[in-house]
Amino acid sequence: GSAAAPLPEEDCMKLNPSFLGIALSSLLAIDLWASKRLGVCAGEGSAWGSARPLMKVIEVSGHGIPWLLGTFYGLCQSDSSAAREVLLNLLFALVLDLVLVAVVKGIVKRRRPTHNKMDMFVTISVDKYSFPSGHATRAALVCRFVLHHLVLAVPLRVLVVLWALIVGVSRVMLGRHNVTDVLFGLLLGYALYSVVEYCWLSPLSAPALFALW
What we know:
Elements: H1 9-15, H2 19-38, H3 52-61, H4 64-77, H5 81-108, H6 134-149, H7 154-173, H8 179-198, H9 207-211
C-alpha cells in the first residue's frame, strides 16, 4: 500500500516528450538520413566514387589556407591603395570566419557523419566537428564579398555564385557534413559579410594597419 515514488524529471520528459522535442528529433533523423543518401562520393566504392577526386579539388578551392595565403600575397603585391583596402578587409573577413566557425564548432561539438572518410586537406583540432561547415560559411562570405567589391561581367558573377553553391553541395556529397551543417554554414557566411561591412577597415578607421603596406 505505499504510494509509488514519483518518476525522476528526466524520465517524465522521456515518457511525455514535448512537441518541440519530437519535431527536433524528427528533423535530426531526416537530416541524418538525407545526408547519408546524398553522400554519394564518401568513398571510392560509393555510387559516384569516381567523382571523388573532382570533389576533393572543389574542397581545396573552399579551404581557408589557400584563401588566406592568396589574399595575403595579393595584399603584399598590390600597388593600389583601393585594392589594398579591399584585400585587407577580405583578409579580415577570412580570419573572422575562421575564428567564428572554430568557436561554434567547439561549442556544438557535433561529430562528422559516420560515413565520412577522414582524408581532409589540412585539418586542425576542431575540424573533427562538423557544425557548421566552414567551407560553406567561407564560400557564402567570399561570394558576397566578391560580388560587392569586384566589377565582374554577368557570366563571372554567375560562376562565383555557382562556385559557392557547389562548394556547399560537395561537402555533403563527400560525406564531410550533414545537410544542416551546410545550410547553417551558408546562412552564417551570408550574415557574416554584413558584420564585415559594418566593421569595414579604412585608412581613417585603422591607420596603423594601412601603414604596414
